[in-house]
Amino acid sequence: MKWSINQLQRYRQGAMPFDEMVNLDSVKKRNPEIRDIAPIHVTGSCTIGASKIDCRFRLEGTMTLPCARTWEDVTYPFTIESVERFSWDVDTLNSDDEIHPVEGDFVELDPVFEELVLLEVPLQVYSEEAADMKSVEGKGWSYTTDEEYNIRLQEERETTVDPRLAGLANLFDKKDES
Distance between CA atoms of 56 and 21, rounded to whole angstroms? Predict the structure, then answer.
């Protein structure tokens, strides 16, 4: 999305609403974990001042990420709400660090949207099949849930007899010889 400052000046009396679909395929290059991203629905409004613009954004979309256990595709829906400020005035930019600079005569929104989406990527996602997975083994590796591991460990402890007490294990098995 790109707006001209002259176009925005027409909305100085009130807020400028917008409702658009934005394609952000460029986030896949910046984060290889993102396998796919659907067009994002962007809604909101902007208030235009003499030297700055205050915008309220709501981004809604879905991205495809790898499952942390099975490496299969997982569709991850997201909703981001943010307030961003833009300015083309040097004094305004110097007075506040949280204002995006406007270069030239256009307000470029795609880089801001990219950053918001990249910050929304979770560290791990799991597919529905991963939740049902109790244990898996391969050549030189295995995966087990904590619950399964604790059950196996408990079973091993119950079946293992302390070697010092092994002779007592058969004590009651002998028939009374009297």
Answer: 16
**C-alpha dist (Å) from residue 103 to 69, 95, 97, 126:** 44, 17, 16, 41
Query: Alpha helices, DSSP H only, in the chain?
Result: 5-9, 27-30, 90-95, 110-120, 128-132, 146-159
Q: Is 102 helix (H, G, I), strand (E, B) or coil?
A: coil
H or E element in which residue 35 lies: none
- The rounded distance, in Å, linking the Cα atoms of 142 and 137 is 4
Q: For residue 8, give the nearest of 107, 111, 109, 113 by alpha carbon.
A: 107
72 is written with which tokens?
A: 């299969």
pLDDT along the chain (178 residues), means of 10: 73 80 91 92 87 88 88 90 84 71 81 91 83 66 76 77 71 61
